[in-house]
């Protein structure tokens, strides 16, 4: 029996590329602790919330199955980058190159951060997509704003609860980890709310251009069915 070909659109492909770039960028920026007034945050906050916004857009327009493919693609590309960076860090530098320690300070920590990021990212992203998908069905496609915000709160909370203890226990003071987690979730959610008007416009434009508005009724939410799109 001949199988029906599976296709993805050019816009979905472009969103996937941006998603992967955001994840890789966030992975590097996470190695820096930044101060916003008296609050300590990680540098990844600058870009990481964009990946959740893309996740929301993809899940809203193309459905959970495309979001699942997106999440695993991001995971694979992030893994590839981290492995190449770690390999480069292990290779001895040229005799005239004096930035070895600086390079190691960033990429030497990256494997631990990457491991924590991989686990947290998969759990948080799938929670985000699942909540978004289920809420769309239950609300019959209404209240996109509420769905986008609530799915982000659930996803980011799971992400932070897993990421920060794994990535920073023993690296930063233990007393700083819980406040860091709290402020990360709060700021990332505020980020989503701030750009929500733009997200809504993007979603409407995507639906109009693609002619798609998928409802995930009766689908298999198994996270391992990667190519069931």
From TrEMBL:
Protein's recorded name: Probable queuosine precursor transporter
What family is reported? Answer: Belongs to the vitamin uptake transporter (VUT/ECF) (TC 2.A.88) family. Q precursor transporter subfamily.
Q: What does this protein do?
A: Involved in the import of queuosine (Q) precursors, required for Q precursor salvage.
Q: Which GO terms describe its molecular function?
A: transmembrane transporter activity
The record's annotation in PANTHER family points to: QUEUOSINE PRECURSOR TRANSPORTER-RELATED
Query: Which keywords accompany this UniProt record?
Result: Cell membrane, Membrane, Transmembrane, Transmembrane helix, Transport
| Pfam family of the protein (one) | Vut_1
Q: Which organism is it from?
A: Hoylesella buccalis ATCC 35310
Task: From the Swiss-Prot or TrEMBL record, state where the protein is found.
Answer: Cell membrane
Topology with respect to the bilayer: Multi-pass membrane protein
Q: According to the entry, what is the taxonomic lineage of the organism?
A: Bacteria, Pseudomonadati, Bacteroidota, Bacteroidia, Bacteroidales
Q: Please verify whether the record's keywords include Transferase.
A: no
Q: Does the keyword Isomerase apply?
A: no
Please list every transmembrane segment annotated in the UniProt record, as residue ranges. Answer: 7-29, 35-54, 75-97, 109-132
Q: Name one GO cellular component term.
A: plasma membrane
InterPro entries, per this entry?
Answer: YhhQ (IPR003744)
């Amino acid at each position: 029996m001949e199988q029906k070909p599976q296709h993805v659109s050019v816009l979905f492909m472009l969103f996937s590329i941006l998603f992967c770039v955001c994840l890789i960028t966030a992975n590097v920026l996470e190695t820096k602790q930044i101060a916003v007034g008296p609050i300590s945050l990680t540098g990844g906050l600058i870009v990481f919330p964009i990946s959740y916004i893309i996740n929301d857009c993809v899940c809203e327009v193309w459905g959970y199955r495309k979001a699942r493919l997106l999440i695993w693609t991001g995971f694979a590309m992030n893994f590839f980058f981290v492995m190449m960076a770690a390999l480069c860090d292990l290779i001895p530098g040229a005799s005239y190159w004096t930035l070895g320690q600086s390079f190691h300070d960033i990429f030497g920590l990256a494997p631990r951060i990457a491991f924590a990021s991989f686990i947290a990212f998969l759990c948080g992203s799938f929670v985000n997509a699942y909540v978004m998908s289920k809420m769309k069905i239950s609300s019959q496609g209404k209240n996109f704003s509420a769905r986008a915000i609530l799915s982000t709160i659930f996803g980011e909370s799971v992400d932070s609860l897993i990421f920060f203890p794994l990535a920073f226990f023993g690296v930063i003071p233990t007393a700083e980890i819980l406040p860091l987690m709290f402020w990360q979730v709060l700021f990332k959610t505020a980020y989503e709310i701030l750009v929500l008007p733009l997200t809504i416009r993007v979603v409407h434009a995507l639906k109009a251009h693609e002619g798609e508005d998928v409802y995930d009724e009766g689908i298999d939410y198994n996270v391992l069915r990667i190519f069931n799109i």
